[in-house]
Write a structure and sequence with these properties.
This protein has 389 residues and is α/β, with parallel strands linked by helices. It folds into two domains: 14-52 and 164-233 and 324-386, FAD/NAD(P)-binding domain, CATH 3.50.50.60; 100-157 and 235-322, D-Amino Acid Oxidase, subunit A, domain 2 (D-Amino Acid Oxidase, Chain A, domain 2, 2-Layer Sandwich). Helix content is 29%, strand content 24%. The chain has helices spanning 21-32, 49-52, 68-92, 110-125, 135-141, 163-177, 289-302, 351-364, 384-388; strands at 14-17, 37-40, 56-57, 103-107, 131-133, 151-155, 159-160, 180-182, 187-193, 196-202, 205-208, 211-214, 235-245, 256-259, 262-266, 271-275, 311-321, 328-331, 337-341. The strands form four sheets. Strands 5-6-4-14-15-16-13-17 form an eight-stranded mixed sheet. The protein has a six-stranded mixed sheet with strand order 8-2-1-12-19-18, with helices on one face. A three-stranded antiparallel sheet has the order 9-10-11, with no helix packed on it. The two termini are 16 Å apart. It binds glycine. Glycine is lined by residues 54, 56, 239, 275-276, 319, 345.
Length: 389
């Protein structure tokens, strides 16, 4: 199976549906390559999962058993991140708040320590750069950790970026590179004729294109015109989060901190993000007492000094979950329709790699080797030709 794209044009005119970090980064790369790019978002650009995220670039800490194939993709994107950040900062004039102190995972009691040791052995076995720390060593790195920590793991390569600044930088980069952005403008349908995408129909009318890229995150199935068998198999995975307000001159934390059921990400401006629930509730936007309680209690058990901190913000986001928790990239099974969604917990991490891979697919007709097994076609139930008849 393959999705043909118009190799007759070396700079295909491209429409991108979804102006989150993924859509914006793809738009930036294609506009840099000289393509005419239009980008549509049903709301304000970058206000979906890209806004809600914690910006963790956690290829190592977030690797779970069963995700060994995805790890290679995550590690490659993690490797790309520092150069991507530098290039984007230079192109946009916006600093991304990239922080490279690393990540610490803590075990609060013996049970946690057993579990953490098991995960650590598994992750070490995959060749990841991780170091086991005693409780005292962890407290040397983060003095506000509760006394009596049972053990910890330090991951020096798991960095973080301020995802909301990433969105701002990408918006500026995209604008300077000459792409057009239509915000508050829903794409109603992809115009498909004879098994090939021809453009989109949006609130502002019809726009033709050589290539249409569907990068609408958890909302990617809400676009009309695409036969249901070809809609990417994504669903929203709800995450509740909150931000506390630290004194930026005397922060309680410098590293990203994973606690047994959540994480804390300290920002340079003093915000301390606490996340996140993982819930299967469709697009339910409600914050719940139970969700907030679990987050605050989990954070407080590791870092009791948060007790006095004001709550700055609470929010809900929707990760685009796929059937195997890995992204869907490239060919959709329909000519000229390209997919870039399903990044689940790794959207910000996978942003540089996704942008490069999709740009390469659009410009050269092939995904890079490392991305091929994440082709969106892996979920197609029937051969494309049979389904479009
Ligand atoms: N990557 C963090 C989260 O999905 O909550």
């Amino acid at each position: 199976m393959s999705t043909r794209i118009p190799l007759s044009s070396s700079q295909p005119k491209t429409v991108i549906i979804g102006a989150g970090a993924i859509g914006l980064a793809i738009a930036w790369r294609l506009a840099q390559a000289g393509c005419e790019v239009s980008l549509y978002d049903r709301r304000e650009a970058g206000r979906g999962a890209s806004w809600a995220s914690a910006g963790m670039l956690a290829a190592a800490a977030e690797t779970e058993p069963g995700e060994e194939r995805l790890l290679a993709l995550n590690l490659e994107s993690q490797r790309l991140w520092p150069d991507f950040a530098r290039e984007l900062e230079a192109a946009s004039g916006v600093a991304l708040g990239y922080r490279d102190e690393g990540t610490i995972e803590v075990a609060l009691n013996r049970d946690d320590a057993e579990r953490l040791r098991f995960t650590y052995e598994f992750q070490k076995g995959l060749g990841l750069d991780l170091r086991w720390l005693s409780g005292a060593e962890a407290r040397d790195l983060e003095p506000h950790l509760r006394p009596g920590i049972a053990g910890a793991v330090f991951s020096p390569t798991d960095h973080q970026v301020e995802n909301r600044l990433l969105v701002q930088a990408l918006l500026e980069g995209v604008r300077r590179a000459g792409a057009r952005l239509y915000e508050g403008c829903a794409v109603r349908e992809v115009d498909i004729a004879e098994g090939s995408a021809r453009g989109v129909v949006s609130d502002r009318g019809r726009e033709s294109a050589d290539v249409v890229i569907l990068a609408a995150g958890a909302w990617s199935r809400e676009i009309g015109g695409i036969p249901s068998a070809y809609l990417p198999a994504v669903r929203p995975i709800k995450g509740q989060m909150l931000a506390l307000k630290m004194d930026p001159a005397a922060p309680l934390l410098r590293h990203v901190l994973w606690v047994p059921r959540g994480y804390l990400a300290p920002r340079l401006d003093g915000r301390l993000l606490v996340g996140a629930t993982v819930e299967e509730r469709g697009f339910d936007e409600s914050l719940t007492a139970g969700g907030m309680l679990a987050l605050i209690e989990g954070a407080w058990r590791a870092l009791p000094a948060i007790e006095e901190l004001p709550i700055a913000e609470t929010w809900v986001g929707f990760r685009p979950g796929s059937r195997d928790d890995a992204p869907m990239l490239g060919p959709s099974g329909i000519d000229r329709l390209v997919i870039a969604t399903g990044h689940f917990r790794n959207g910000i991490l996978l942003c540089p790699l996704t942008a490069e891979a999709i740009a390469q697919f659009v410009l050269k007709g092939r995904l890079p080797e490392i991305a091929r097994e994440f082709s969106a076609e892996r979920f197609l139930p029937v051969p494309p030709a049979a389904a479009t008849k």
